[in-house]
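Try this one yourself first.
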Protein backbone atom coordinates (compact mmCIF):
# COMPACT_ATOMS: atom_id res chain seq x y z
CA UNK A 1 0.00 0.00 0.00
CA UNK A 2 1.25 3.51 -0.90
CA UNK A 3 -0.41 6.55 0.62
CA UNK A 4 -0.51 9.91 -1.15
CA UNK A 5 -1.77 13.10 0.47
CA UNK A 6 -3.10 15.94 -1.70
CA UNK A 7 -3.95 19.17 0.09
CA UNK A 8 -6.68 20.09 -2.40
CA UNK A 9 -8.60 18.31 -5.20
CA UNK A 10 -6.81 20.56 -7.74
CA UNK A 11 -3.43 19.06 -6.74
CA UNK A 12 -4.39 15.46 -7.62
CA UNK A 13 -2.73 14.08 -10.79
CA UNK A 14 -4.86 14.65 -13.89
CA UNK A 15 -6.34 11.69 -15.79
CA UNK A 16 -5.54 9.23 -13.01
CA UNK A 17 -7.52 7.67 -10.21
CA UNK A 18 -6.24 5.56 -7.31
CA UNK A 19 -7.50 2.18 -6.07
CA UNK A 20 -8.92 3.94 -3.06
CA UNK A 21 -9.69 7.65 -2.64
CA UNK A 22 -10.47 9.21 0.72
CA UNK A 23 -12.08 12.64 0.64
CA UNK A 24 -11.60 14.79 3.75
CA UNK A 25 -13.51 17.90 4.75
CA UNK A 26 -13.30 18.04 8.53
CA UNK A 27 -15.12 21.42 8.58
CA UNK A 28 -17.67 20.19 7.89
CA UNK A 29 -18.92 18.10 4.97
CA UNK A 30 -17.29 14.76 5.78
CA UNK A 31 -18.04 15.18 9.49
CA UNK A 32 -21.69 15.70 8.50
CA UNK A 33 -21.73 12.69 6.15
CA UNK A 34 -20.36 10.39 8.87
CA UNK A 35 -22.86 11.78 11.38
CA UNK A 36 -25.88 11.28 9.11
CA UNK A 37 -24.98 7.69 8.25
CA UNK A 38 -24.18 6.88 11.85
CA UNK A 39 -27.56 8.33 12.91
CA UNK A 40 -29.45 5.99 10.57
CA UNK A 41 -29.75 8.11 7.42
CA UNK A 42 -30.72 5.95 4.40
CA UNK A 43 -27.89 7.47 2.34
CA UNK A 44 -26.14 10.74 1.58
CA UNK A 45 -26.12 11.96 -2.02
CA UNK A 46 -23.70 14.75 -2.87
CA UNK A 47 -23.98 17.43 -5.54
CA UNK A 48 -21.74 20.30 -6.57
CA UNK A 49 -24.66 22.07 -8.20
CA UNK A 50 -27.66 23.26 -6.17
CA UNK A 51 -30.11 23.18 -9.10
CA UNK A 52 -29.18 19.60 -9.90
CA UNK A 53 -29.68 18.69 -6.23
CA UNK A 54 -33.18 20.13 -6.28
CA UNK A 55 -34.08 18.43 -9.56
CA UNK A 56 -32.87 14.97 -8.48
CA UNK A 57 -34.35 15.16 -4.98
CA UNK A 58 -37.77 16.14 -6.37
CA UNK A 59 -38.19 12.51 -7.42
CA UNK A 60 -37.90 11.44 -3.77
CA UNK A 61 -40.95 11.41 -1.44
CA UNK A 62 -40.73 14.52 0.83
CA UNK A 63 -40.90 12.44 4.03
CA UNK A 64 -37.93 10.34 2.85
CA UNK A 65 -35.60 13.22 1.92
CA UNK A 66 -33.75 16.12 3.48
CA UNK A 67 -32.05 18.87 1.53
CA UNK A 68 -28.87 20.50 2.83
CA UNK A 69 -27.23 23.43 1.10
CA UNK A 70 -24.22 25.41 2.31
CA UNK A 71 -22.37 28.30 0.66
CA UNK A 72 -19.74 30.39 2.44
CA UNK A 73 -20.47 28.57 5.69
CA UNK A 74 -24.16 29.59 5.79
CA UNK A 75 -27.38 27.74 4.97
CA UNK A 76 -28.72 28.30 1.47
CA UNK A 77 -32.18 29.91 1.53
CA UNK A 78 -34.98 27.43 0.93
CA UNK A 79 -33.00 24.39 2.13
CA UNK A 80 -34.00 22.53 5.29
CA UNK A 81 -30.45 22.25 6.55
CA UNK A 82 -27.08 23.91 6.18
CA UNK A 83 -23.98 21.84 6.88
CA UNK A 84 -23.92 21.49 10.64
CA UNK A 85 -23.44 17.89 11.79
CA UNK A 86 -25.16 18.86 15.03
CA UNK A 87 -28.47 19.30 13.20
CA UNK A 88 -28.33 15.70 11.95
CA UNK A 89 -29.98 13.99 14.91
CA UNK A 90 -31.32 10.41 14.65
CA UNK A 91 -34.86 11.84 15.11
CA UNK A 92 -34.43 13.93 11.99
CA UNK A 93 -32.36 11.78 9.64
CA UNK A 94 -33.36 8.18 10.39
CA UNK A 95 -34.56 6.43 7.21
CA UNK A 96 -34.17 9.57 5.10
CA UNK A 97 -31.75 10.41 2.30
CA UNK A 98 -29.72 13.58 2.72
CA UNK A 99 -29.21 15.47 -0.54
CA UNK A 100 -26.30 17.81 0.11
CA UNK A 101 -24.23 20.44 -1.66
CA UNK A 102 -21.39 22.30 0.09
CA UNK A 103 -18.79 24.81 -1.09
CA UNK A 104 -15.71 22.57 -1.22
CA UNK A 105 -16.35 19.09 0.23
CA UNK A 106 -18.72 17.95 -2.47
CA UNK A 107 -16.31 19.25 -5.19
CA UNK A 108 -13.54 17.07 -3.74
CA UNK A 109 -15.83 14.04 -3.86
CA UNK A 110 -16.69 14.71 -7.49
CA UNK A 111 -12.97 14.81 -8.38
CA UNK A 112 -12.34 11.27 -7.06
CA UNK A 113 -15.71 9.65 -7.72
CA UNK A 114 -14.36 7.34 -10.48
CA UNK A 115 -11.84 5.64 -8.17
CA UNK A 116 -12.35 1.92 -7.52
CA UNK A 117 -13.39 2.72 -3.97
CA UNK A 118 -14.25 6.11 -2.51
CA UNK A 119 -14.50 6.80 1.23
CA UNK A 120 -15.05 9.92 3.27
CA UNK A 121 -13.09 10.64 6.42
CA UNK A 122 -13.06 13.12 9.26
CA UNK A 123 -11.45 12.96 12.70
CA UNK A 124 -14.68 11.55 14.13
CA UNK A 125 -14.55 8.35 11.98
CA UNK A 126 -10.79 8.08 11.39
CA UNK A 127 -10.43 4.62 13.01
CA UNK A 128 -13.03 3.03 10.71
CA UNK A 129 -11.17 4.32 7.65
CA UNK A 130 -7.82 3.07 8.96
CA UNK A 131 -9.30 -0.36 9.70
CA UNK A 132 -10.59 -0.56 6.11
CA UNK A 133 -7.14 0.29 4.71
CA UNK A 134 -5.39 -2.28 6.87
CA UNK A 135 -7.90 -5.00 5.95
CA UNK A 136 -8.18 -4.30 2.20
CA UNK A 137 -4.62 -3.13 1.55
CA UNK A 138 -5.44 -1.12 -1.60
CA UNK A 139 -2.29 -0.56 -3.67
CA UNK A 140 -2.63 3.20 -4.12
CA UNK A 141 -4.52 5.40 -1.69
CA UNK A 142 -5.14 9.11 -2.19
CA UNK A 143 -6.17 11.17 0.82
CA UNK A 144 -7.59 14.35 -0.65
CA UNK A 145 -8.26 17.47 1.39
CA UNK A 146 -11.12 19.64 0.25
CA UNK A 147 -9.35 22.90 1.04
CA UNK A 148 -11.19 26.19 0.64
CA UNK A 149 -11.85 27.40 -2.89
CA UNK A 150 -8.65 25.85 -4.22
CA UNK A 151 -6.33 26.62 -1.33
CA UNK A 152 -4.91 24.56 1.52
CA UNK A 153 -6.94 23.84 4.67
CA UNK A 154 -4.97 23.12 7.83
CA UNK A 155 -7.64 20.82 9.31
CA UNK A 156 -7.96 18.57 6.24
CA UNK A 157 -4.22 17.98 6.05
CA UNK A 158 -4.11 17.33 9.80
CA UNK A 159 -6.83 14.70 9.35
CA UNK A 160 -4.90 13.15 6.44
CA UNK A 161 -1.96 13.01 8.87
CA UNK A 162 -4.16 11.38 11.53
CA UNK A 163 -5.06 8.61 9.10
CA UNK A 164 -1.46 8.11 7.91
CA UNK A 165 -0.13 8.26 11.50
CA UNK A 166 -2.50 5.49 12.57
CA UNK A 167 -1.72 3.31 9.52
CA UNK A 168 2.00 3.65 10.30
CA UNK A 169 1.45 2.81 13.96
CA UNK A 170 -0.81 -0.18 13.35
CA UNK A 171 1.13 -1.67 10.41
CA UNK A 172 4.46 -1.09 12.19
CA UNK A 173 5.96 -0.03 8.87
CA UNK A 174 8.24 3.01 8.75
CA UNK A 175 6.52 6.12 7.31
CA UNK A 176 8.88 6.22 4.32
CA UNK A 177 7.70 2.72 3.25
CA UNK A 178 4.07 3.84 3.16
CA UNK A 179 4.51 7.39 1.90
CA UNK A 180 3.99 7.88 -1.83
CA UNK A 181 4.74 11.62 -1.57
CA UNK A 182 6.38 14.04 0.86
CA UNK A 183 2.99 15.47 1.80
CA UNK A 184 2.34 12.27 3.80
CA UNK A 185 5.37 12.91 6.01
CA UNK A 186 4.45 16.56 6.57
CA UNK A 187 0.82 15.66 7.29
CA UNK A 188 1.96 13.15 9.92
CA UNK A 189 4.22 15.82 11.46
CA UNK A 190 1.33 18.31 11.56
CA UNK A 191 -1.01 15.82 13.22
CA UNK A 192 1.66 14.69 15.71
CA UNK A 193 2.18 18.30 16.78
CA UNK A 194 -1.55 18.90 17.40
CA UNK A 195 -3.00 15.49 18.26
CA UNK A 196 -3.63 16.41 21.90
CA UNK A 197 -5.30 19.70 20.99
CA UNK A 198 -7.24 19.29 17.77
CA UNK A 199 -9.78 21.86 18.92
CA UNK A 200 -6.89 24.33 19.20
CA UNK A 201 -5.86 23.46 15.65
CA UNK A 202 -9.40 24.07 14.39
CA UNK A 203 -9.37 27.46 16.14
CA UNK A 204 -6.16 28.39 14.27
CA UNK A 205 -7.48 27.27 10.88
CA UNK A 206 -8.87 30.01 8.62
CA UNK A 207 -12.08 28.08 8.03
CA UNK A 208 -12.35 27.42 11.76
CA UNK A 209 -12.15 31.19 12.28
CA UNK A 210 -14.81 31.72 9.62
CA UNK A 211 -17.12 29.28 11.41
CA UNK A 212 -16.42 30.90 14.77
CA UNK A 213 -17.52 34.22 13.28
CA UNK A 214 -20.75 32.42 12.34
CA UNK A 215 -21.05 31.25 15.97
CA UNK A 216 -20.42 27.59 15.19
CA UNK A 217 -18.33 26.94 18.33
CA UNK A 218 -20.11 23.69 19.09
CA UNK A 219 -19.48 22.42 15.54
CA UNK A 220 -15.76 22.89 16.02
CA UNK A 221 -15.86 21.02 19.32
CA UNK A 222 -17.79 18.16 17.75
CA UNK A 223 -15.55 17.92 14.67
CA UNK A 224 -12.36 17.92 16.79
CA UNK A 225 -13.22 14.58 18.43
CA UNK A 226 -11.26 11.55 17.24
CA UNK A 227 -12.59 8.03 16.57
CA UNK A 228 -16.03 8.54 18.12
CA UNK A 229 -18.08 7.04 15.24
CA UNK A 230 -17.55 3.59 13.75
CA UNK A 231 -19.24 4.38 10.45
CA UNK A 232 -17.40 3.92 7.13
CA UNK A 233 -19.00 6.11 4.44
CA UNK A 234 -18.31 4.33 1.15
CA UNK A 235 -19.54 5.32 -2.30
CA UNK A 236 -22.26 2.90 -3.51
CA UNK A 237 -22.89 4.58 -6.86
CA UNK A 238 -21.62 7.88 -8.24
CA UNK A 239 -22.12 10.49 -5.52
CA UNK A 240 -24.14 8.24 -3.20
CA UNK A 241 -22.74 7.12 0.17
O1 LIG B 1 -16.72 23.79 2.05
C1 LIG B 1 -17.42 22.87 2.44
O2 LIG B 1 -17.67 21.89 1.76
C2 LIG B 1 -18.06 22.99 3.79
O3 LIG B 1 -17.90 21.88 4.52
C3 LIG B 1 -17.91 24.32 4.39
S1 LIG B 1 -18.78 24.59 5.88
O4 LIG B 1 -18.02 24.06 6.97
O5 LIG B 1 -20.09 24.03 5.82
O6 LIG B 1 -18.88 26.04 6.03
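Now uncover the answer:
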Amino acid sequence: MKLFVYHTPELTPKDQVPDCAIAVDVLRATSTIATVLSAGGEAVQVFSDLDELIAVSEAWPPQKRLRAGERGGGKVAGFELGNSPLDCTPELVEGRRLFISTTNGTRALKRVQDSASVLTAAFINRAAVVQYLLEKQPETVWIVGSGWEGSYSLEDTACAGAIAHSVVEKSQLPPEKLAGNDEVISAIALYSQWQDNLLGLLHHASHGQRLLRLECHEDLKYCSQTDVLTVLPMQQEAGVF
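Discussion: Residues 25, 27-29, 70, 73, 83, 102-105, 146, 211 surround (2R)-3-sulfolactic acid (CB under 6 Å). The radius of gyration is 17 Å.
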